[in-house]
Design goal:
682 residues; mainly alpha; two-stranded antiparallel sheet; two-stranded antiparallel ribbon; 63% helix; Choline transporter-like protein; mitochondrion
């Protein structure tokens, strides 16, 4: 990395971590931008946000700026009764003290008249029964028989200014204010589920790790049997999934509301609702049936190639057996990726919260200063206050006018680019390390006597000492393509409302092209890293040699390499399926024996999905050792064929078993060429 690049990285980290404030993600803020309920501040005992006039949240401004145009105050608890300012003024001391806690600091209800209080916006005109919802006081809405909306058992009430308010209007305002916190509501429920089930999720991931490790060890000693067991179990697991979906689909027949379509149901925050309709289970059943049919057809058409691929997996098992430490290297990759993800996430949070408080003019009548920025300290003496008597200077959002704030989105993209680069570098380091260890096994003429004592450590040392530049360069190329894909997705989101069909078509074409380019670069990089581990050349010559070596053996790539990848993918699918089924029955409380042990959750799919995704990543990590071993042996095998001829002067380094695989692939090539020749002669 160059000096300029390092300075740029350090500058972004310094600015984001010094100016960022993660509290903005956790705490609601009042009209002055102060955090409600933050420990160590005067508002520590006031964790809830109260709106002076919730009806103003029905304004379209909420959807534009995610801010209700009314004064917002941090309070200790939400109002629990209906009370107007006039009643509190004329009522008992208890009413005045109760009302005063929802006014701005320093307001004395006994000295000021209600018109003065309302004119200066010191107190709300009315209090209504409210409940705390995601740290915000929203009206305690309910419905009576017939669908009549009530607030605190009242359908209408006065607003303290002589007008009457319908509870339905309050409902609409609450919905609009809820737009601001709807996503946070779901996020908080998901976070609550994680706090309740994290130890069970951890146990599920540990089980997935043990199952993966046991499967890999068994594959080492019983490769042929385990592959066939794996194929049969995958078919059975998916078949059981189809059967279960059908039983759920049949059990909902005749149930009230089960025939509602997903489109009619719309987007619901309670995702368990979707499991109560038949169409959801029908969709699951169709998807699983399609996957099952595809796998069975592939197994039928690739049956000859599968036998050859099994033989190659057996050879890879021997290599793994001589380099057993390679099974534990994925733990190193996981740890390094965890560090990279943590750095990216923390920097992203600090960047997104490094904005300053922005205040804007909010008013009810016509005003030329409306929605302009303002300073709350000098607002009362400004022209805006003089020309617009009903205007207020309220906290609007976090932003800024400096160059740093203007280009904050670029810093976020740069942070994403750094994440991709570092993650790809860690992956590349693992690939070079494993391929170097397995290459040392292949090119050992007398196995295992000529294999180094610690092949993984030796290969890792060579990669860090000699090849960091090549790894960084290969990772850079891939990261640039990935960032371009992110930019295209960002543009796609921004242009969703556009009506230009040509622009949408071009954007879709570019997304497709860069997706294909990313896959190609990943494939080339992987094989280039293998050649780097074998010969120690730089990235570009290694990529050139690997590409043309593969092109000269393109048939063998199709026969051996890709079919082996398909079999290993079935292994990952099997582990995910087994762990996923057991986690589904556990978290949904369907196992009677341990029903009481299952945690009570808002969305039981949250830990299930986490366990499934985590199981796939764990299985991918362990199976990547075999995949890397197969790819390395394959390239070494192709190189061995071109360099040697099997004579005493130039003997093959491959084992007799691997030479037998070569004979089978040759016969497949000859059969294919014969078919092509016969078709051509006709």
């Amino acid at each position: 990395m160059g000096v300029g690049f390092k300075k740029c990285v350090l500058a972004i980290v310094k600015n984001s971590w010094s100016q960022g404030d993660p509290r903005k993600v956790i705490y609601p803020t009042d009209s002055r931008g102060q955090f409600c309920g933050q420990a160590g501040t005067p508002l520590e005992k006031k964790p809830l946000l109260f709106y002076f006039n919730i009806l103003k949240c029905a304004s379209p401004l909420v959807l534009l700026e995610f801010q209700c145009p009314t004064t917002q105050l941090c309070v200790e608890k939400c109002p629990d009764r209906h009370l107007t300012l006039m009643k509190a003024k004329l009522g008992s001391n208890e009413d005045r003290e109760y009302y005063q806690q929802y006014c701005k600091d320093g307001v004395n209800l006994t000295k000021l008249s209600p018109p003065e209080i309302l004119k200066d916006g010191l107190c709300p005109a009315i209090l209504m029964p409210s409940k705390a919802f995601t740290r915000r006081c929203l009206p305690a809405l309910g419905t009576l028989k017939g669908g009549v909306v009530v607030v605190g058992n009242e359908t209408t009430f006065t607003d303290g200014k002589g007008s009457s308010i319908n509870a339905t209007d309050v409902l609409e305002a609450s919905k609009k204010s809820n737009v601001v916190v709807e996503a946070r509501q779901v996020a908080m429920r998901i976070f609550e589920d994680y706090t309740q089930s994290w130890h069970w999720i951890l146990l599920g991931l540990v089980i997935a790790m043990l199952v993966s490790f046991i499967f890999i060890v068994l594959l080492r000693f019983l490769a042929g049997i385990m592959v066939w067991v794996m194929i049969v179990l995958v078919i059975l697991v998916i078949g059981y999934g189809i059967f279960h979906c059908y039983m759920e689909f049949a059990s909902l027949k005749g149930e009230p509301g089960s025939d509602v379509t997903i489109r009619d149901l719309g987007l619901q925050t309670d995702f368990s609702v979707y499991l109560q309709i038949r169409q959801t289970w029908l969709a699951f059943m169709i998807i699983l049936a399609i996957v099952e049919v595809i796998i069975i057809l592939l197994l039928i058409f690739l049956r000859k190639r599968i036998m050859i691929a099994i033989a190659l997996i057996k050879e890879a098992s021997r290599a793994v057996g001589h380099v057993m430490s390679s099974l534990f290297y994925p733990l190193v990759t996981f740890a390094l990726l965890a560090v990279v993800i943590a750095y990216w996430a923390i920097t992203a949070v600090f960047l997104s919260t490094s904005n300053e408080q922005v205040y804007k003019v909010f008013n009810n009548s016509e005003c030329e200063y409306s929605r302009e920025t303002c300073d709350p300290q000098t607002f009362n003496t400004s022209n805006a206050s003089a020309q617009c008597p009903d205007a207020e200077c309220l906290f609007a959002f976090y932003g800024g006018e400096t160059y740093y704030h203007k280009y904050l989105i670029l810093f976020q993209f740069y942070n994403v680019f750094l994440f991709f680069w570092c993650a790809n570098f860690v992956t590349a380091l693992g690939q070079v390390t494993l391929s170097g260890a397995f290459a040392s096994y292949y090119w050992a003429f007398k196995k295992p006597d000529d294999i180094p004592s610690y092949p993984i450590f030796s290969s890792l040392g060579r990669a860090l000492r000699y090849h960091t530049g090549s790894l960084a360069f290969g990772s850079l190329i891939l990261s640039i393509v990935q960032v371009i894909r992110v930019l295209l997705e960002y543009l796609d989101q921004k242009l969703k409302g556009a009506q230009n069909k040509f622009a949408k078509f071009m954007l879709s074409c570019m997304k497709c092209c860069f997706w294909c380019l990313e896959k190609c670069i990943k494939f080339l990089n992987r094989n280039a890293y293998i050649m780097i581990a074998i010969y120690g050349k730089s990235f570009c010559p290694s990529a050139h040699d690997a590409f043309f070596l593969l092109m000269r053996n393109i048939i063998r790539v199709a026969v051996l390499d890709k079919v082996t990848d398909f079999l290993l993918f079935l292994g990952k699918l099997l582990i995910v399926g087994i762990v996923g089924i057991f986690s589904f029955f556990f978290f949904s409380g369907r196992i009677r024996a341990i029903e009481d042990a299952a945690p009570s959750l808002n969305y039981y799919w949250v830990p299930i999905l986490t366990v499934v995704v985590g199981s796939y990543l764990i299985a991918h990590g362990f199976f990547s050792v075999y995949a890397m071993c197969v790819d390395t042996l394959f390239l070494c095998f192709c190189e061995d064929l071109e360099r040697n001829d099997g004579s005493p002067e130039r003997p093959y380094y491959m084992s007799p078993e691997l030479h037998e695989i070569l004979s089978k692939t040759k016969s497949l090539e000859e059969d294919r060429d014969g078919v092509v020749w016969r078709i051509g002669s006709r």
